[in-house]
Amino acid sequence: MPVRPLTSSRIAGISTAIAAIVLLIAIAASSDRSSAPLLVSQLTGNTMGTGYTVKYRHAADVPSVEAIQAEVEWQLAEINQSMSTYDANSELSRFNRSGSTEWVPVSTPLYTVLAAALEIGRQSSGAFDITIGPLVNLWGFGPENRSQDIPGADEIAAMLERTGHDKLMLDETARAVRKSRADVYVDLSAIAKGYAVDHIAAILERHGIGHYMIEIGGEIRVRGANAQQMPWRIGIDKPQTQGHAVQRVLVLDNVALATSGNYRNYFMIGDRRYMHVIDPATGWSAESRLSSVTVLAETCMLADAWATALLVLGPERGLAIAEQLGLRALFIADLDGAFTEYATSHFESGETQNIAVTFLAAFLIMGIAIAAMAIGVVMGRKPIAGSCGGLGQLGLGCDGGCGRPCSSSENDKSSADKSRP
């Protein structure tokens, strides 16, 4: 290919491009010097029979860590008081004990979660069923004491008469709920934690915090960047019964994630393992080659519920429904001891998008570095204020001083096995 001569117009164009790069670097450096770095804080505590962790980056003028934690704890207590089946005085427990089949007005949070749960139950052909509580208790995975024997067929059949998402009705105008049978029992353990995560996110965002990772019992929501100013990286557990290992690491931003697994919470009778996931259609502990399902969604409430629904559906039906509904889902199946992944096209496209964004960011950083070093040469080999040709002043996560390497970010991993109700 012939080389084009350096005409005056081409030289002018190159000069303009270089000037633009210099201007952008100067603006970025000036902006970085004038703005204080974000601080890093972390909250931890217990809620809903499990623990919670909140990591966030924030400006110095936001409320104190103690003030935000007090707000978070109050919100979690309110949700627990509304939706817990372990608290006998909660709004949900009182509804479950009620022998009435009349309309019962409920709080806005409880109505919101009930409405979302029934819609997902409909979309999943009944695989997600919040009335399955009696069967969960019968199998010993609820708040009641576990039996030493597996339930009998007659007991399961009797409980199936009480279950089914069609046995609950909602009145949106009156914000009320009604049972078709007095003995219907509602269990929100597969959706309430996700709802709580979303409300913690709302608290942080209300205070202007745009960088955070929130986790309750494996249900996660992330936004912005971590302490190393990199996208959050969430580890998905390898679904093995002994020990912990990471199956895959996801690079995420502004998304919620939930994983439901059947490999931690179980009991053995003889040489057979009975998992905590109950199939609403049969009333029996679900039997499937599927070990775990991870779902990415706009809200953690939806991710939480759909992870459970798809695990119940199994790899074939679950994958088909998830694909049809456009869900971003990753299925991990145990095929004779080897873990095999199946993912919806929407999940894979999201992963490809993350890789592309990471590559683009690396490419841009490299371009800025080359431009900064070129400026150093032009200015008599004197680097722009900062280090490594000015990168230290551009907020790119490098250490001060060219003799030290750029800092490397550590994985922000949160295991996700829904092992407790």
Task: Give the helix/strand layout.
Elements: H1 8-34, E1 39-47, E2 50-58, H2 65-83, H3 91-97, E3 104-105, H4 108-123, H5 133-138, H6 153-160, E4 168-171, E5 176-179, H7 192-206, E6 211-216, E7 219-223, E8 232-237, E9 246-252, E10 255-261, E11 266-269, E12 272-275, E13 290-297, H8 300-325, E14 328-335, E15 338-343, H9 345-378
Helix pairs in contact: 1-9, 2-7, 4-8, 7-8
Give an account of the 3D structure:
The chain has 421 residues and is of the alpha+beta class. The protein has a single domain, classed as T-fold. The chain contains 9 helices and 15 strands. The protein has helices spanning 8-34, 65-83, 91-97, 108-123, 133-138, 153-160, 192-206, 300-325, 345-378; strands at residues 39-47, 50-58, 104-105, 168-171, 176-179, 211-216, 219-223, 232-237, 246-252, 255-261, 266-269, 272-275, 290-297, 328-335, 338-343. It has an 8-stranded antiparallel sheet with strand order 1-2-6-7-10-13-14-15. A hairpin with a 2-residue loop joins strand 14 and strand 15 (338-343). Helix 1 packs across helix 9 (345-378), helix 2 (65-83) packs antiparallel against helix 7 (192-206) and helix 7 packs across helix 8. The chain starts with 7 loop residues before the first helix and ends in a 43-residue tail after the last helix.
Name the assembly state.
single chain
Biggest sheet details: 8 strands, antiparallel
Provide the gyration radius in Å. Answer: 26 Å
Overall CATH class: Alpha Beta
Classify the helix fraction into a percent range: 25-40%
Poorly predicted ranges: 26-34, 350-366, 368-421
CATH architecture verdict: Roll
Strand tally: 15
> How much of the sequence is in beta strands?
15-25%
Report the CATH topology name.
T-fold
Series of H and E elements: HEEHHEHHHEEHEEEEEEEEHEEH
Strand order of the largest sheet: 1-2-6-7-10-13-14-15
Overall average residue pLDDT: 78
The CATH homologous superfamily is named ApbE-like domains
Work out the helix count. Answer: 9
Return the structural class: alpha+beta
**What is the domain tally?**
1
Shape: globular
